[in-house]
Amino acid sequence: MTILLHDLVGADPARPFSPHCWKVAMALAHKGLPFACNSVTFTQVPLIEDGASRTVPVIRDGSRVVADSFLIAAYLDETYPDRPSLFGGEGGEAMARFVEAWSQSVLHAGLNMIVLEEIANLLSPEDQAYFRPSREARLGMTFGEVAERRAAEIAGFSARLTPLRMMLRSQPFIGGASPLFCDYIVFGALQWARITSSAKILEAGDPVTDWFERCLDLHDGLGRSVPAAA
């Protein structure tokens, strides 16, 4: 049975960009589970699955509806234990929780300053009317104030990747010899920027850049199925 992934898009349904939905798409591909995407915009999210969640990703697997990327990954490993594991055991799941906290508090904090205005430009007027005030309230600053910080955030973003860079000098993936869900967590954040923003935040020759390219090639190049922003 094909799993349905409710996936976030802007005005162009061919360019899904949510970092959290990308985590789930990569997780489903990792497990070798067939899935289809239902493209939804910000203002359509409350309507999916009878209001099952205020945010995406949400999946439907037969009669089961599961929301939240981490909970979805845990559900997939529990429900399909015969397929490649996303965590590699309890220790891997615990590690992934740390990576999730680091990604949200460090990477997303910087990326919000970098991609916010460009995301708004990808949306329909109806979604822009929702997105701008909701993000200003969440961040506690106006779009103008965010724009003033953008150049500095781009210049300093490489420093946010230092722990990842140091680790990737000795192994090809965060999960070790092969990727795990912890890789997809960080991949989702950088894929979010790749699809929505023209900002250059990764440098040639950097171990992080090489890792990201490897992730883009995973699962028959799933990550490359959406071209980078011009």
Automatic annotation (TrEMBL):
Residues 8-84 form the GST N-terminal domain. It comes from the Bacteria. InterPro entries: Glutathione-S-Trfase_C_sf (IPR036282), Glutathione_S-Trfase_N (IPR004045), GST_UstS-like_C (IPR054416), Thioredoxin-like_sf (IPR036249). Gene3D superfamilies: 1.20.1050.10, Glutaredoxin. Coiled coil: none annotated. This is Beta-aryl ether-cleaving protein. It comes from Hoeflea olei. The lineage of its organism: Bacteria, Pseudomonadati, Pseudomonadota, Alphaproteobacteria, Hyphomicrobiales.
